Amino acid sequence: MFLAAFLLTCGQPYAQSAAATYDGAAERIVSLSPHLTELTFAAGAGQKLVGVVDYSDYPAAAADIQRIGDAFRVDYEAISLLNPDIVLAWRGGTSRETIERLQSLGYRVVELDAGRLEDIIEQLLVIGRLAGTEAAARLVATKLEREITTLRASNSNKPPVSVFFQISSEPLFSITGKHVISDIIDLCGGRNVFAALPGLAPPVDVEAVVAANPDVIIAPGKQGDSVWMERWRSLAGLAAVQGGHLYTVDRDLISRSGPRIIDGAVEICTALDKTRANMVQDSGSGG
Question: How confident is the model at residue 255, as a pLDDT?
Fold first, then answer.
């Protein structure tokens, strides 16, 4: 069981060290990412959040917490007035300049990131330990672990389908195999066509997508949002277009590495199952 290895590094050595060495439970926490705000609430420590960044809108109680900036700009004076015990930063999302500036000002900055779904379980437990809410965090982590295990098992041995995941259209960006969404694609029996590219969320061009010729194209957004699909529908030669395999998944569920991401994973798995069913039907009809 993953929980038995509570503080294996999983690529998170700083988070492990912080959880292991912090003296006493943090009572005043600042979050520098909406998904870290969500994770802190899920770990049972939402009442200890004194500052969050813009777009921290889940759960509803997050709306009442003071804003201290956004993903690109942090109000250091506001943070100073809040006097936090811990500042939660998003490794890969929070700028290195911001992290180093906060550290130079004497704040304990804990960097967290998730490359795989199981890393989210670790982060819940790390935050719970930092905040002294381990019991609450463990309950949520256990539930999430069970859901991930069930979803992996139910999608194992399914026929693979190739996937292009578009995280933005103008400019066009995708994800590599280091991204947690790529782990979800793998879990669902998919193959991320840009998994081998360097970095985390690289720019790609239309020509590269055409060359990869994915079976399915998925983009985050609101359900019913189909504007982004028009670019691809004009390329009738794409396998995804020919099969009608263009799908939108809920942006908040899939782009935030918190417990709700499992619901986003279900949406992706459902999209791939529809693609498989259509491909089998087309093959059977000689299409």
Answer: 87
